[in-house]
């Protein structure tokens, strides 16, 4: 039976039927994996944003900025390799983010705390220098 409220205990099924914890050691390893994936999520988000900034700066330096572009009238530029790489990083980061969300939906208090602490620690390591970077888009409401 799936829990519908937060519970505290070392018995948890996470994401897959085969990922079950039955001892404190397996529970600790699960919490460590959740923590590390949360840190990796922040790392990948930082790489994606920085790669997008680099690709946009190269694009803007090669094109003239004399005209103001309307978002509805611009042409799609599908043949740029940087767009494919940015899209791939976004897909990977979205998949990790949704897996973390589903892990939190196990309603285990330890999993919740491990993921939130991992996100905070990853933000501290990789994203605290983002104050000078302005990102106008946030398509995912999870983080």
TrEMBL record:
<keyword id="KW-0187">Copper transport</keyword>
<keyword id="KW-1133">Transmembrane helix</keyword>
<dbReference type="GO" id="GO:0005886">
    <property type="term" value="C:plasma membrane"/>
</dbReference>
<feature type="transmembrane region" description="Helical">
    <location>
        <begin position="110"/>
        <end position="126"/>
    </location>
</feature>
<feature type="transmembrane region" description="Helical">
    <location>
        <begin position="84"/>
        <end position="104"/>
    </location>
</feature>
<keyword id="KW-0186">Copper</keyword>
<keyword id="KW-0813">Transport</keyword>
<keyword id="KW-0406">Ion transport</keyword>
<keyword id="KW-0812">Transmembrane</keyword>
<comment type="similarity">
    <text>Belongs to the copper transporter (Ctr) (TC 1.A.56) family. SLC31A subfamily.</text>
</comment>
<dbReference type="Pfam" id="PF04145">
    <property type="entry name" value="Ctr"/>
</dbReference>
<protein>
    <recommendedName>
        <fullName>Copper transport protein</fullName>
    </recommendedName>
</protein>
<keyword id="KW-0472">Membrane</keyword>
<feature type="transmembrane region" description="Helical">
    <location>
        <begin position="24"/>
        <end position="44"/>
    </location>
</feature>
<dbReference type="InterPro" id="IPR007274">
    <property type="entry name" value="Cop_transporter"/>
</dbReference>
<dbReference type="GO" id="GO:0005375">
    <property type="term" value="F:copper ion transmembrane transporter activity"/>
</dbReference>
């Amino acid at each position: 039976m799936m829990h519908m409220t937060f519970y505290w205990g070392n018995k948890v099924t996470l994401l897959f039927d085969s990922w079950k914890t039955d001892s404190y050691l397996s529970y600790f390893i699960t919490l460590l994996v959740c923590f590390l994936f949360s840190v990796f999520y922040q790392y990948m988000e930082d790489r994606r944003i920085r790669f997008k900034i680099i690709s946009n700066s190269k694009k803007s330096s090669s094109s003239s900025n004399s005209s103001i572009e309307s978002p509805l009238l611009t042409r799609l530029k599908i043949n740029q390799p940087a767009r494919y790489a940015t899209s791939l990083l976004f897909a990977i980061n979205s998949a990790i983010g949704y897996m973390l969300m589903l892990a939190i939906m196990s309603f285990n208090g330890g999993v919740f705390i491990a993921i939130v602490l991992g996100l905070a620690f990853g933000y501290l390591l990789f994203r605290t220098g983002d104050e000078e970077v302005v990102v106008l888009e946030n398509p995912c409401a999870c983080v």
